[in-house]
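Researcher: Please translate sequence to structure tokens.
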Amino acid sequence: MHKSFIYILTNKSKTLYVGVTNDLKRRMSEHMVNSIKGFPARYNINILVYFEEFGDIRYAIRREKQIKGWLRKKKVELIEKFNPGWVDLSNDI
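Model: Translation complete:
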């Protein structure tokens, strides 16, 4: 089984982006050079503040949809419980 991840990115303005990938390191590299077109590139969203690992992509996708459905307040609470300083976690992956 391949690993899968859901992740939350932000920028200096604390705009949030929730995504899913099977390779978090590669995906972060793509975000760092703004090769992920659309919302993340437009708002320079490339600071990794939260992630979860899954053994099955189906569970990761389900979790991504769940978090995307949350209000911003609940997403912020999740981030702050895991990463209170909103530190960029991309160096740790």
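Researcher: Any highlights?
Model: The chain has one domain: 4-92.
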